[in-house]
Sequence to fold (187 residues):
Amino acid sequence: MKSIFLLLLCTIAIVFAEVTVLKAVQTIYDRSPKLRIKGSGFDADEHSLILDLAATGQASLRVDKDFLITKDDDGLILKLLSGRKWVNLDGRNPPVALILSGVRFASNPNQNLLLEPVIIANVLATPTVKASEDIIYTTATNELRINVQDSWVPRRLIYFSTLLCTRRWATRWSLLSLWPRIRLFFV
Fold:
């Protein structure tokens, strides 16, 4: 009788064991150093967690090869290893969804504790800057122009000027229109 009761108790514990993830989609770059997953039920040791994390059509990222896991009070922090990307964006139009489709513990790797796949982040291409050798402080110009062009940003011209407020507000408006994707600040 005791063995049947223990078996029933273990079965109930397995059925009710689950991981919940807060469905707050972050926007990150493909080479962002950290990604936070907020949720509960990550009760195992950091090294005992197995995550199925990938973009659609790509192989799952691997712990200790692509990223490291650190537990936090309200979830997990994933740290991308150097030279790695969250998503391979070749042949894709960003943003690309990074999906957490499974959470398993090493003690029972066949049981997925996540009830349904969750989009963790939208991944954009990391912006690049090409240096210029132009020297502008010796010229007669009072303006600086920056051309922004990437696969996820339509071609824009950011224009800085020393003229009065009308142009500064226009410049700030141009920067604000790019706000979610480019974080530029100026006084």
Remarks:
- The radius of gyration is 23 Å.
